[in-house]
Amino acid sequence: MSENQNLLAEQRRALILDDVRKRGGVRVNELTRKLSVSDMTIRRDLDALARQGVIEKVHGGAVPVVEASTHEPGFEAKSTLELSAKEDIARTAATMVVPGSAIALSGGTTTFALARHLVDVPGLTVVTNSVRVADVFHGAQRPTAAGAARAGAATVVLTGGVRTPSDSLVGPVADRAIDSLHFDVLFIGVHGISVEAGLSTPNLAEAETNRRLVRAARRVVVVADHTKWGTVGLSSFTGLDEVDAFVTDAGLPDEVREEIEEHLPGLMVAGGSPEA
After folding, report:
1. pTM of the entire predicted model
2. Dmax of the chain from CA atoms?
3. CA Rg, the chain, in Å?
4. DSSP code for 230
């Protein structure tokens, strides 16, 4: 029962956040009518969103927090956001991975979630510039209480480089390592994605490393929750024409899905309707 309540709360907060961003602000009494919940429930939702740093509470309601295009939250801060959405995305993206293939996972909390779904896929070679992703696979390779590691454990190639706030490795060392490699599929997380700016990040060095990852991949799959659509970071690293698929969650509004499908036929929406 508590799991369902938590899921509903998270879905409700996603709807509130979408409303705040679309309209530039919301009032508590409007949200109580729209969502058919109590005044106290809405205020708790706004408190939770304010703690995440995505809205600012004002008298009687809330307004959006406009982040600078150069602001890069740390891994821990991002890992608390859109948890069920990231899990849905990870589960769907994992079905795209073929045993024995060579894949790449960029840095990010969504690719971290995806990594946890891939530890039992046999014979993978995993290239990553994410310390957190590498730790997931290395942890799976440790011997169990019975004294045996998982069969068919992945071969992990960690690029090296300079560590960013989101625990990605970037810079010349990472770039040179990636330039010598080729992989079947790249699963890439993004700070922002839009028609005009394509895929973007607030970190200039990470943008260059991501460009190398895109160039080295036969297929590029973006894994990002619905809040990333319409966000633009300081530096774009590739356009939508270089993306083969975009795996996102059911919080994406229908009108936005139509816009994306005009530019990106490979849209995959994971999970059920947030209003179900």
Report:
1. 0.71
2. 59
3. 19
4. T
